Amino acid sequence: MNPTEFVDLTLMITGPTHLREEVRRAGSLPEFGHRDSEGAKRFVPIMENLKKIARTEDYEPILFNGSGTTSMEAAMRSLVGEDECVLNVSVGAFGELFHKLARFNGKDAVLLKFEPGKPVDPDVLEDALAEYGPTVVTLTHNETSTGVVNDIVPLCALARKFGAMPIVDGVSIFGGADIRLDEAGPAMYCTATQKSLGLPAGFGIGFVSQEALEKARKVDNRGYTTDILSQVEKARVNQTLTTPNTTLLNQMALQLDYIVNQEGIAERFARHEAMRDQTQAWLESVDGFDPFAEEGFRSPTATGVSAPEGMDLESLKRLKENMRARGYLFDPGYSKLNKRQEEAGKRLCFRIGHMGDISPEMLGEYLKVLQEELAKL
Ligand SMILES: *Cc1c(COP(=O)(O)O)cnc(C)c1O
What we know:
Layout: E1 10-11, H1 21-26, H2 37-53, E2 60-65, H3 68-79, E3 85-90, H4 93-104, E4 108-113, H5 122-132, E5 136-140, E6 142-143, E7 148-149, H6 152-161, E8 165-169, H7 181-184, E9 188-192, E10 203-208, H8 210-216, H9 228-236, H10 246-263, H11 265-285, E11 290-291, E12 302-306, H12 313-325, E13 328-329, H13 335-343, E14 349-353, H14 360-376
Parallel strand pairs: 1-13, 3-4, 3-5, 5-8, 8-9
Antiparallel strand pairs: 2-10, 6-7, 9-10, 11-12, 12-14
Helix pairs in contact: 2-10, 3-4, 5-6, 11-14
The chain binds pyridoxal-5'-phosphate.
């Protein structure tokens, strides 16, 4: 085994993301017993800081061993009852993931799909709510496959108007933008560590409301690790239900403290908006490239780029390898989406991740190198 063969690339993909040096170093802090008083030293500030970053008093955070999907699966298992219908609203691959999680857990689920690059159209959603009468609606806050950000406040309100309980997947935006959780008021908000929080993967994070906990009491077959009731019971005593990755808890304690007390929450959110604008300005400056997402719905954490006509999957692969030689991991796009785009004769979409602890300086340097490599293609 020769770990010096592990190449230290700067990850410009949409997760996992680049880690700050301090976060890497925190990986060598002491291991500890998660039921011991040492555990609380990490857990108490983690839970407090998660609530601060979500700007909420009312929601309770849960750490699920696993990843974002685990938290989403827990929402489906715990919050959709046997004879109920869940409407999975999708603007891309991750909206479809919620649908898969509903169906694989035996839920009666309907998929409402919007064109890639487009946000949810409230009028179409309204018709679907009237037609299917769902009790639960899932929404994707930030669709990582295309770089579309939905405005969850009016969409959650619309679901409520029809008596449905909204659940939001915010995996790739939490930590990079104000998620307006209290204002939107979903029953549960699902996220993870390895995207805009700038940490390694390892926990799904769920913010649960009192309403969600009450609802779960009436749902059968919630599973064990997917049961928000047994999970929240442990979270309330600063523990996880099953053995957590203590290395990640060390890193998380440090990183959340950095976000809240050093960088500042508002400053972090502003930095992400500035990087979205920076990426768009760059796109305007290069010929043939356009933002994939509709104007007004472009993500602060990931930009989908419409590649020029004629740029095929092969050239994106080559570009990826050329960028690797320059020290970067380039994101050639969500492969299922690009296959569909290619089959339909449409322009391909690659992605630029600017989440977590990527700085505007790093992004500027990356775009410069990318432009050089694009010119050589
Ligand atoms: C990455 C991602 C997921 C899946 O999360 P995992 O942590 O990989 O399980 C779900 N939804 C969105 C929007 C994502 O970006």
